[in-house]
From TrEMBL:
Residues 293-320 have a biased composition (Low complexity). Residues 255-348 are annotated as: Disordered. Keywords: Glycoprotein, Membrane, Signal, Transmembrane, Transmembrane helix. This is Ig-like domain-containing protein. GO terms for cellular component: membrane. Residues 1-20 form the signal peptide. It is found in: Membrane. Residues 266-282 have a biased composition (Basic and acidic residues). InterPro entries: CD2/SLAM_rcpt, Ig-like_dom, Ig-like_dom_sf, Ig-like_fold, Orthoreo_P10. The gene is LOC110495667. It comes from the Eukaryota. The keyword S-adenosyl-L-methionine does not apply. Residues 338-348 have a biased composition (Basic residues).
């Protein structure tokens, strides 16, 4: 029985403290400044009083301040507090009176002190299916957690941990954790998953809607095939052109073959028709009525000389060569010479 009463007192005290903390209207951090808002207009001719936990800390009546001073209050009646410490916690009450001393406004405020949150840090662990981020903070009492992905807040994520599936992650995704309480906000450094499990999933970049490496292999293979087809086409074109040239040369040779065969007998016959006359060979008989002794013999005519010469122009144009002339036609009979007159006999 003796132990029951102290235990009940501790539970009641804790409940009262928790209720008082939950009912705080305003919070401040140690060493800071805070203004308890009243927002009442036309206070120039009215009396105003501020109390802290029932004790008067400020009073203005008929333009006089006792206690307090001019800097402790704003134009709308808000109370200005500077250099706050834990002793400033509690209940504050503002009262406004008219000229007759009648209360026209009565309002209470609760003020609680809160420590500034420290900067959090983030660590992550990887598995085969997802990545778990954990926000680490020394004091989590009265703190709200917020997560951001690529500097964009993730709504609904207010726990100390964040789980993201590997399929939802991309290579450039970054994450941050923010902690917030009533007096301050702190954000962790930017973190990017770098474990092997995440890297395998993150490195799967897409190209045209398919896996990047797969598409690179397909494009490389297609490019190689196109290059091979181009080389084969060029080789076929070169072979075809060479074959066409060879066919043209063969056809040309076939066309020139008859002309070549016709020209060779002509030269051989011409060579036999104009042999050199060695010594001791029988000379041709001079036709009757020929030139007298001492004559150099008949001269070939211009017609005979022209016919004896080959005609390259006619051969170049594909005409058959002219038939070589016989000896009689090649060497026509000598021209008649005038008869020489002897001395006339003397007339008797």
């Amino acid at each position: 029985m003796a132990c029951t009463l102290p235990l009940a007192f501790l539970v009641l005290h804790g409940f009262i403290s928790l209720s008082a903390e939950d009912s705080c209207d305003n919070y401040f951090q140690p060493g800071g400044n805070f203004s308890i808002p009243l927002k009442y207009t036309d206070l120039s001719s009215k009396e105003i009083t501020w109390k802290h936990n029932g004790s008067v800390i400020f009073k203005r009546k008929n333009g006089k301040f006792k206690p307090g001073k001019t800097e402790d209050i704003l134009e709308d009646g808000s109370l200005q507090l500077n250099g706050l410490v834990s002793a400033n916690e509690g209940t504050y009450k503002a009262e406004v009176f008219n000229i007759d001393g009648k209360s026209i406004k009565d309002q209470s405020f609760s003020l609680c002190m809160k420590e500034k949150v420290s900067k959090p840090s983030v660590k992550f662990t990887c598995s085969d299916k997802d990545v778990t981020f954990t926000c680490i903070l020394t004091n989590t009492e009265g703190v709200t957690f917020k997560w951001s992905k690529n500097r964009q807040p993730l709504n609904g994520e207010k726990k100390t941990t964040l789980i993201i599936g590997l399929k939802q992650l991309k290579e450039l995704d970054t994450f941050t954790c923010s902690v917030v309480n009533e007096v301050s906000t702190e954000t962790s450094d930017i973190i990017k998953p770098t474990c092997k499990a995440v890297s395998k999933s993150i490195d799967r970049r897409l190209l045209f809607g398919f896996d990047f490496l797969t598409m690179v292999c397909i494009l490389a293979g297609g490019g190689g095939l196109v290059l091979l087809l181009i080389i084969i086409t060029l080789v076929c074109c070169c072979l075809s052109r060479r074959k066409s040239q060879m066919h043209f040369e063969e056809e040309r040779e076939l066309r020139l073959a008859p002309l070549t065969k016709t020209q060779h007998p002509y030269h051989s016959e011409g060579q036999t028709k104009h042999p050199s006359h060695p010594e001791g060979q029988k000379q041709r008989q001079r036709p009757p009525g020929g030139a007298p002794p001492g004559s150099t013999g008949p001269r070939p005519t211009a017609r005979a000389s022209n016919q004896a010469e080959p005609q390259p122009r006619a051969q170049a144009q594909g005409r058959p060569p002219q038939t070589p002339l016989d000896d009689d036609e090649e060497h026509p009979p000598p021209l008649p010479q005038p008869r020489k007159k002897g001395p006339h006999p003397p007339r008797h």
